[in-house]
Amino acid sequence: MQAMVYHGPGKPVLEEVPDPEITDDADAIVRVDATTICGTDLHILAGDVPSVRVGRILGHEAVGTVQEVGSAVRTMGPGDRILVSSISVCGACRFCREGHYGLCRGGGGWLLGHTYDGTQAEYVRVPFADTSTHQLPDGVSDENALMLADILPTGYEAGVLKGGVSPGDVVAVVGTGPVGLAAIMGARLFSPSHIIAVDHADLRLDAAKQAGADVTVNNAAASPLSAVHSMTDGLGADVVIEAAGQPETFELAVQLSRPGARIASIAVHGKPAALHLEDQWTRDITITTGLVDTYSTPKLLRLLASGQLDPGRLVTHRFPFSDIGAAYDTFARASDTGAVKVAIST
Question: What is the rounded distance in angstroms from the CA atom of residue 76 to the CA atom of residue 84?
């Protein structure tokens, strides 16, 4: 089969590799019908995730059709159409029993495209298939469902829920890439008074408006702090969601927060970021981090099926799998291309 294989920083290669095989009774082999590229994949290619070894098939998001299942799999069979989650769930360890699947200590967590071969391929072996996939309702398109493999639950869980967004809150989102936009869509479900989106790319700020932001600020040309203070009587935002993953964006998120605020950092950070406790120790702020757990995926699927979420609007570019190299180039140059999410069909 064809797959996108990591050959070191800056070196993804589309090449022929062996088809995956079942190696555990809880595995499923899934034909990938649609996959995508995540900002995390770009961090891998930048060398920010050294735990990804040369030879690994990239990708952790997919919609597909079950081809074969191990003898222990009970909830699916050949021909079933499923969402492959970015997080694999053993279901038995302490963290899984508490719903913290991203912290799984039973062999799960972020496996696909990380320590296991991933979804940017014609077929993928899915471990813990019963607990790590979701049957797709009739009428839900591949593109809509694909957004629930990672970015929607990441923005919703790690951003909106950990940030404690409540009705009437002023929410600032720093970074309007795919996960930032997902956080804006998720925050809208809780009726905040204002959502302020901050980015340096006008194309992405336009996407933020479409996703539900009330105010956008290009921080290359204007002061986000002035904009936030003008809307909050000088206090700052109730919740700040940092979704860009740069040292300066984390520091900006702290600056935008009011005393007693919640700051949710949901991006991949490849470099150290400073927390100026000499300025912040009296301000009673709460800072959260964390990998997505995907416990919210069933709820998000219900919202999707009922028409209350439309994440497919985040897909801006489409490619056949044979052009996945072009998809990477388009996604990596998002400031120029306007790419939000790319959909890759096999």
Answer: 12
